[in-house]
């Protein structure tokens, strides 16, 4: 079976990487801990590893509901623990009376330090509590160098993973009709925007398809895809139910409230 046929062309390189991880575990009988993966990458890892007799896989990102997680590939005779995922949780101390910190502020602060996205997981903003998870090997560097966020002085406190806040999203399901399965058509109908406006936003890099920025309005959507449009929300294409008599597509989407 050609495993590539189930995935987009741009995902083939990642599939090759997962195959190499699996090969290392099989040949060297050792653990393989991956970088942080988005949910789409996690799905690919599950598919590629499958029910392989010689390799098992587990995921952990600090708490069960974490979105970004590290994968651990291991021989079946090993029982992994949370410590094997090498995660560090930081809580941000900042002047809460004078500044409001948002997700993008923390993301920008980490990236400005030269930290690659694959080295840190979820950023959690719950009320005035700000937390984020990093790979333990870079934790000392991050703690020493992250001294400001959004022009406010901050300090980091390491906390046990058991104290990681959980922010559960609420989704609502809706059946809509679209003229095509193009990204611009699906986003426009889901968020009740004009297609021309959505096309402009996509071309400006405001849209993501399966957690990757896409600047082509004509990108085709498939069942299971997660789409997002900055400042408007996220939606998941649950089901492509078929075409109507007028040759439009009837689809079922879930979107964040």
UniProtKB/TrEMBL annotation:
Keywords: RNA-binding. It comes from the Bacteria. InterPro entries: Nucleotide-bd_a/b_plait_sf (IPR012677), RqcP2_RBD (IPR040591), S4_RNA-bd (IPR002942), S4_RNA-bd_sf (IPR036986). One of its GO terms (molecular function) is RNA binding. CDD domains: S4 (cd00165). Residues 181-238 form the RNA-binding S4 domain. Transmembrane segments: none annotated. Signal peptide: none annotated. This is RNA-binding S4 domain-containing protein. It comes from Anoxybacillus flavithermus AK1.
């Amino acid at each position: 079976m050609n495993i590539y046929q189930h995935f987009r062309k741009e995902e083939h390189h990642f599939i090759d990487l997962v195959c190499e991880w699996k090969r290392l575990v099989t040949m060297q009988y050792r653990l393989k801990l991956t970088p942080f993966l988005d949910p789409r990458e996690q799905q690919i890892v599950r598919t590629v590893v499958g029910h392989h007799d010689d390799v098992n896989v587990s995921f952990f990102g600090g708490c069960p509901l974490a979105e970004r997680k590290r994968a651990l590939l291991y021989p079946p005779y090993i029982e992994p623990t949370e410590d094997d995922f090498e995660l560090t949780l930081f809580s941000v101390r900042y002047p809460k009376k004078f500044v409001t910190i948002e997700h993008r502020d923390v993301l920008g602060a980490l990236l400005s330090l030269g930290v690659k996205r694959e080295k840190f997981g979820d950023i959690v903003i719950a009320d005035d509590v700000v937390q984020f998870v990093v790979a333990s090997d870079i934790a000392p560097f991050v703690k020493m160098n992250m001294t400001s966020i959004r022009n406010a002085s901050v300090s980091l406190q390491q906390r046990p993973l058991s104290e990681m806040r959980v922010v559960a999203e609420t989704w609502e399901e809706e059946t809509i009709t679209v003229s095509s399965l193009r990204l611009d058509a699906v986003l426009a109908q889901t968020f009740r925007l004009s297609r021309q406006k959505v096309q402009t936003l996509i071309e400006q890099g405001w849209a993501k398809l399966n957690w990757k920025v896409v600047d082509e309005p004509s990108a085709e959507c498939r069942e299971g895809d997660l789409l997002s449009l900055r400042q408007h929300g996220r939606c998941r294409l649950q089901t492509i139910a078929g075409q109507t008599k007028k040759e439009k597509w009837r689809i079922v989407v879930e979107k964040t409230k």
